[in-house]
Write a structure and sequence with these properties.
Layout lengths: L1 H15 L5 E2 L5 E3 L2 E11 L8 E6 L7 E5 L3 E8 L8 E3 L20 E2 L2 E3 L5 E6 L6 H6 L4 E6 L1 H4 L11 E11 L5 E2 L6 E4 L2 E2 L1 E6 L2 E8 L6 E5 L5 E6 L2 E9 L6 E3 L4 E7 L7 E7 L26 E10 L26 E9 L14 E3 L11 E4 L2 E9 L5 E5 L5 E5 L14 E4 L4 E8 L9 E5 L2 H5 L3 E7 L15 E3 L6 E5 L7 E8 L4 E6 L7 E2 L6 E9 L5 E8 L1
Bound molecules: CU-O-CU linkage and copper (II) ion (CU) (2 copies).
Length: about 575
């Protein structure tokens, strides 16, 4: 019933205000090495009139700032959870230690600051961050929590590519929402309203030259079959993990690129000499293959959506005068990617994607849920142990009827084959999400290097948040060669001073070479207020913003993982 009312509203809106577009919002940028992200429950005027919508925002009212970081820098994140629920923030696509990854194991309780840091090892790319709290991902992503990460490096900077943020280098997160008659978001897999950077009926002005778009599918479930309303051709210059070796022209009668949940693609579009005209970026989901998320058209039930199996506008692009120093051509080559070699793979790991019928039954999907490796996700089970520096082939074998966007943490991979044949050129770059179509087998290669941690695992899962929440997920640890993880040391011994304090606390250790895996501070009620993975303690820890009272500082030894707690008083 609600759907019917909304449909009338949509139709009336269309007739009455068919010319009304909203200028697409461009997220603010934060640049540097120190970032503060404040996650909160808030409100935003999403629909032009009527109620505000209850949203989640990071530093703002919806979505979050774009973090611009440089390869080689050490970046520090100060993530404060002001929500009423626990959450996590995952750095999707980032190669970093598992304890900094922000997956379902790095839970940030309400009111707590989590301060991960890492060296940026990724090459120039478009990544993103989003909540990854187990069984809460769909809800928290629907609220609008997330943001772009743009990684820059010397190779990319040396290329003649558009790089003026919001002008000729435009980030667009594409998503959809079901907005009820009270203007509130429903927690559903498929929305009825498309949003470009959280803007309904978006329009944006693009200069008459080559424009770069960093497209992110931030949807819960939908894949978008992207193209332009005049069927113009465009170039793919980058995929999930960075630039391709050279641009790939998508042309022909209907140039399209399918972008699934979690995936990114960087494209170059030529608007030269077209000042005054306009064109739509569209989703041509009518021609999506059956059983691809977004291809179905259910009139009723939990998967009903007006956007299912239809074509629709995402953003209207109004072509305006060129900027000064416009980019007017496409580089012939981009970067020299060095991929792992198939002959270096010492192990093939098979991951099945299947329907759970007969195995298990879960809340929304019931007996028709989807699973990996023939079992539902169990947060207490490590599914795989991968030796550090191992190059592996992962064989994703689907017996599911449905297509699932498979995502893995820690690494970017290279697709070797899809059902035995190499992927199209535009899919031959670095990827971290691949849509595995029903019944097909995808093989990719990846090297698991730099970061070993026997305690905190990395995840792999379907990036359809509903499927992930319902258990289509698994986890692996990367460990240094067997035997070295023996528990040899005892509890770490330390002293905190000054105590009491009202500013900083410092640490002293009676023995040398103390490596701390984790520092956390709890208040007298046992609530965690500060979480510091692998803290640097030389310069002390700032506690000046803590309320007066008694706290417990807990250090976890890196080797033994044993914990020691000391009481401190803040006055
Ligand atoms: Cu973008 Cu494990 O997720
Ligand atoms: Cu991820
Ligand atoms: Cu799935």
């Amino acid at each position: 019933m609600k759907k019917t009312i909304f449909a009338f509203f949509v139709i009336l809106t269309h007739i009455g205000f068919s010319q009304s577009y909203n200028t697409m919002w461009i997220p603010d940028t934060l640049i540097g090495t120190n970032f503060s992200l404040n996650i909160k429950d808030t409100f935003a005027q999403i629909v032009n009139s009527g109620n505000q919508t209850i949203t989640g925002g990071i530093n703002g009212k919806f979505w979050g700032p774009t973090l611009i970081i440089n390869k080689g820098d050490v970046v520090h994140m100060n993530v404060t959870n002001h929500l009423n629920d626990s959450t996590t923030i995952h750095w999707h696509g980032m190669h970093l230690p598992a304890v900094m990854d922000g997956g379902p194991h790095q839970i940030i309780p309400p009111g707590t600051i989590w301060q991960p840091y890492w060296e940026v090892k990724n090459q120039a790319s478009t990544l993103w961050y989003h909540p990854h709290m187990h069984e809460m991902s769909q809800t928290q992503i629907t609220k609008g929590l997330g943001g772009f990460i743009i990684v820059r490096d010397a190779e990319e900077s040396a290329l003649a590519l558009p790089r003026k943020y919001g002008l000729d280098d435009i980030p667009i997160v594409i998503t959809d929402r079901d907005i009820n008659s009270q203007n509130q978001f429903a927690i559903v897999p498929y929305g009825d309203s498309i949003m470009a950077n959280m803007t309904l009926r978006a329009q944006y002005s693009v200069p008459a030259q080559f424009v770069r778009m960093r497209l992110l599918n931030g949807a819960i479930e939908t894949s978008y079959n992207l193209g332009f309303s005049d069927n113009r051709s465009f170039y793919i210059i980058g995929t999930d993990g960075g630039l391709l070796d050279s641009p790939v022209l998508i042309s022909g009668a209907t140039p399209r690129y399918i972008l699934s949940a979690g995936e990114r693609v960087e494209i170059l579009v030529d608007f030269s000499g077209q000042t005054g005209s306009s064109v739509f970026l569209k989703a041509y989901n009518q021609s999506l293959a059956n059983f691809t998320p977004g291809s179905e058209s259910f009139p009723n039930g939990p998967f009903a959506s007006y956007l299912g199996h239809t074509n629709y506008n995402i953003v209207k692009l109004n072509i305006s005068s060129p900027t000064s120093n416009p980019i007017t051509s496409v580089p012939t080559t981009l970067v020299n990617n060095v991929y792992p070699l198939e002959q270096d793979a010492v192990f093939t790991r098979t991951i099945t994607l299947s329907d759970s019928t007969g195995v298990t039954s879960v809340p929304i999907l019931g007996p028709n849920a989807f699973i990996l490796g023939h079992h539902l996700f169990d947060i207490n089970t490590i599914n795989h142990n991968i030796p550090l520096n191992q190059t592996e082939i992962w064989e994703l074998k689907s017996s599911s009827v449905f297509a699932h966007p498979f995502h893995i943490h820690d690494v970017e991979f290279k697709i070797l084959t899809i059902n035995g044949t190499p992927p199209p050129t535009q899919q031959q770059g670095w990827k971290d999400v691949i849509l595995v179509e029903g019944g097909k087998t995808v093989r990719f290669i990846a090297k698991f290097q730099d970061y070993a941690d026997a305690v905190h695992p990395f995840m792999y899962h379907c990036h359809i948040a509903l499927h992930e929440d319902e258990g289509m997920m698994g986890q692996f640890v990367v460990t240094e060669s067997a035997g070295t993880d023996q528990i040899t040391s005892t509890n770490i011994d330390f002293r905190v001073y000054p105590n009491p304090t009202n500013d900083k606390i410092f640490f002293s250790f009676p023995t040398d070479n103390n490596e701390i895996y984790y520092l956390s501070v709890k208040n007298v009620n046992g609530k965690t207020v500060l979480m510091l993975p692998k803290p640097k303690l030389e310069n002390g820890i700032d506690v000046s913003h803590f309320a007066k009272g008694v706290y417990f500082v807990e250090l976890t030894d890196n080797k033994s993982k044993l914990k020691t707690t000391k009481k401190i008083i803040i006055e």
